[in-house]
Amino acid sequence: MGFFLVLVLEQVALAQREPPSSLAEETRALLPAGSIPALLPSSSSSSSSSPSSAPSPRGALRAGLLVLALALHAALEGLALGLQEAEGAVLRVCLALLLHKCAVAFSLALKLLRGRLRPPAVAACLLLFAMMSPLGVGLGTAVAAGAGPRQRLCRGVLEGLAAGTFLYITFLEILPQELGVPQHRIPKVILLLAGFALVTAILFIKI
Description:
It is a multi-pass membrane protein. This protein is mainly α.
């Protein structure tokens, strides 16, 4: 459910930003790209190349959607921690979340910097991401206080959202960008498998 939720939100937002196909056909250049600089003055060509350093709307939109998805995922991760009742399970999940959050926070900071966002916007996004897990822990503690069928249904739905957002962010946002670069493919795969094995081992450790 979380997978489809984030997917639908992103596709709807991108569809609103993209021009219609008929408008794209009408605005297509009639001359080849290489012939345009020869016909235009040098001042116009230099001025047209300057906005490339500014953040693109599509890049800022994707960065914002990634922050919202990660914030939702962090809240649901905290919810999973708050729903734990046994002390050993709490310690195992907390340790796994600490390792996971460090890697995700580092990747999020790199993603925001690559999106050419301003430093105050990057700091605000990271602050929002950091605050969501404690909020989820409090919500999970409140849900775990009840043992009725509604609480169990709510717990199952929220855990499904957490798993879906994790799958979406991992397999459609982070991994395609990292594995799409041709350099260092084997080390990236090794680190990916090592991280998965480490978190899995932590979850099975008897504390």
